[in-house]
Every structure is written in structure tokens, then in C-alpha cells.
């Protein structure tokens, strides 16, 4: 059985999210900041008349954002809520057999890694596979919904 993932870069590392959760990929739009939101909340964006919340995945994961021409926003469906996720660069669609995906590494740290579902070896590189419904919990989805209500 094969699975498909959208692969993208955050800093120099490669990540993948299930392709079925991706609606589309767009260039970096202008954001309207929303006061009193977490530092990883980029703000609101207008996507063909629809107001969407956007989160900077790099900041959410504790990485420093890198400004480049390749930055993109991945529009995802998370439990019925559409959310934009800013990444450094979208690479490709990865097709992987389940047996090619290694289990996630056991990490002993204060930060939870439950959002990592596995690791895929792509040539000499490793791709961390993410579960975006765990990565963006109820608080993020509620924040996205509240922000859109403010803008309406």
C-alpha cells in the first residue's frame, strides 16, 4: 500500500505531510496581522475572497524563518478548517510504500514529538513525516476560526 506526501523544506531539513490534507500551494501573499496572537500566527490572508488564517510552521517548530523567493503557503484542511502553513520551499510529491517508512525515533525531550509519524529515507536524505492534525491542535484551529470571525 502506498501513501503520498507533499514534501517541503524548513531551513535545511525536509518534511512531508499527507497529500490528502493539502488543498493547494500558493506563493507568499500579504498577511494582515492580528493583535494578541502567538508569535507563530502570521495573520490573515485573502484567498480568492475567502479569509484564511496562516501559521508560520518554522516559528511553530522553534526554527528561525528564512526569507527567500521560494517561500510558499500550503493550504491544508485540518479537521474541517482550512489553514495556511508557511514553509521555505515546496519540493515534490513523495510516493512511499508503508514498509519504506521507518517508525518515528524515540526522543527524550521536554517538547512532544507526537506529531512525527515516521521517517522516510530519500536517497541520502531523511524526510520527517508530520501529522498536521496533531501538530496543529485544538488551540490553533480555534485561533484560526476566531481570527476569521474577527475579519468577517
Structure description:
There is one protein chain. This protein is mostly beta strands and 152 residues long. 14% of the residues lie in helices and 48% in strands. It is built from three helices and eleven strands, in the order βββββαββββββαα. Strands 8-1-2-11-10-9 form a six-stranded mixed sheet. Strand 1 and strand 2 form a beta hairpin. The longest helix has 14 residues, at 138-151. The radius of gyration is 15 Å and the shape is globular. It starts with a strand and ends with a helix. The model has no long low-confidence stretch (mean pLDDT 87).
Mean pLDDT: 87
Assign an overall shape. Answer: globular
Instruction: Note the run of SSEs as H and E.
Output: EEEEEHEEEEEEHH
Work out the strand percent: over 45%
Instruction: Count up the helices.
Output: 3
Distance between the termini: 43 Å
Topology:
Layout: E1 2-10, E2 13-18, E3 22-27, E4 41-47, E5 50-56, H1 57-60, E6 72-78, E7 81-87, E8 89-97, E9 101-102, E10 116-122, E11 125-130, H2 132-135, H3 138-151
Parallel strand pairs: 2-11, 5-7
Antiparallel strand pairs: 1-2, 1-8, 3-6, 4-5, 6-7, 9-10, 10-11
Summary of the model, kept short:
By secondary structure, the protein is mainly β.
Key traits:
152 residues, mainly beta, 6-stranded mixed beta sheet, 5-stranded mixed beta sheet, 3 helices
